[in-house]
Amino acid sequence: MNLYTRTGDAGQTSIIGGRVDKDDARIEAYGTIDELNSFVGQAVSLMDTNSGIFADMKEELLQIQHELFDCGSDLAYARLNEDRYKVGAELAERLETWIDRLEQNNPPLEKFILPGGTSLAAILHVCRTVCRRAERRAVTLRHQHEVNPEVLTYLNRLSDYFFAAARTANARMHVQDIEYVRSAKVFGRKS
């Protein structure tokens, strides 16, 4: 099997049910999700070097990688196809459970923080920001075509997960998050 097909040499690519230009909003949306998935893979690789303290998060991130493929697949349909969608409401609900679990052990948060700290936290912040861009691209696509709305919900919740995971990565390595010095107190703990 050849990895190259030459079918995209003129600037078009196949989607489920048709062909579009490679700069089509649909391609931008699921291409950004693919980019995000690569950064998640980098985060997973960094977890291998930390003697198992991130085993729970590694398992979650591996599951997220599969779900990001599902998101891309759901956005790749040329026409609405609700019967074949892979992303449902339960995925975002499960992310909320994971976020709540991670945040229980994170230090209190009152102000905005700078992305960074450990290498793992830094790449998880990159995941968060690329996820936000993927969400924006999916919203742009929604203005032009019908899309699975659960993908938008999932991406929105996933960026929150990456924020919590980045804070957890720092906390587990005993590295403090650095507060943005001009930030007002914008966060409060739920009681």
TrEMBL record:
The top EC class, named as a word, is: transferase
Boundaries of every Cobalamin adenosyltransferase-like domain copy: 3-169
Query: One short Pfam family name for this protein?
Result: Cob_adeno_trans
Q: Which domain of life is it from?
A: Bacteria
Please give the Gene3D superfamilies that the UniProt record associates with this protein: Cobalamin adenosyltransferase-like
Pathway entry: Cofactor biosynthesis; adenosylcobalamin biosynthesis; adenosylcobalamin from cob(II)yrinate a,c-diamide: step 2/7
- Give EC number(s), comma-separated: 2.5.1.17
Q: Which UniProt keywords apply?
A: ATP-binding, Cobalamin biosynthesis, Nucleotide-binding, Transferase
Q: Which InterPro entries match?
A: CblAdoTrfase-like (IPR016030), CblAdoTrfase-like_sf (IPR036451), PduO-typ (IPR029499)
Catalytic activity entry:
2 cob(II)alamin + reduced [electron-transfer flavoprotein] + 2 ATP = 2 adenosylcob(III)alamin + 2 triphosphate + oxidized [electron-transfer flavoprotein] + 3 H(+); 2 cob(II)yrinate a,c diamide + reduced [electron-transfer flavoprotein] + 2 ATP = 2 adenosylcob(III)yrinate a,c-diamide + 2 triphosphate + oxidized [electron-transfer flavoprotein] + 3 H(+)
The family assignment reads: Belongs to the Cob(I)alamin adenosyltransferase family.
What this protein is called in its record is: Corrinoid adenosyltransferase
Gene that this sequence comes from:
yvqK
